Amino acid sequence: MAHCPDPCLSCAGPGLKRVLSVLGDDALARAAVASSRELVVLNPGVDSIAGTAAQVRGLATGDPALLSEAVVHFRRSPRRLALASALEDDGNALAELGERDTGIAELSEALELYAELGASWDAGRVRARLRALGVRRRVGNTTPARIGWEALTTSELDVVRLVALGLRNREVGERLFVSPHTVSTHLRHAFTKLGINSRVELARLVSQHEEPSV
Fold it and tell me: Contact, 19 vs 26, CB < 8 A?
């Protein structure tokens, strides 16, 4: 059972941080970050708590790596609304960093989840963000794959193909003209979607699905 030292701050998590950012209350934002960190210490190995902590810290510091980490944690937890929130924040961050395709893919997945869960206000916000990026999305009756090979975005596929050839993150980044951090983010997401933990396993899956290409 999870221990919560401050339900108001830590359990509200990212939603609270968004409110605080609008209100400009830095003191409460710092308190939310500290509380979420304390929860992780008290509840090691709980993905929903680790995801909340990473997301709150990522929003507070503007660190995109933490937002991507939150997505990874929430994919392993049953909290689907929290996953949608993390995908939204990570998608926005990636789009702002120039990773437009991956950002749009994550925002689209967030939209599908919000709509499926009946979070119409959140869905409307994400739909508006997608329109600002030049994309119109209608939520249909089919849900895009979230796990497995079919769930990989174009950018993630580009990365895993090169990693399967034995290239390091820096070398992959040089070939794709992105930063090593971006490569690491795509790789983490790919590992989670594929349910693997090593590059050896990744190379095996790539060989099963397609011929690796330079």
Answer: no
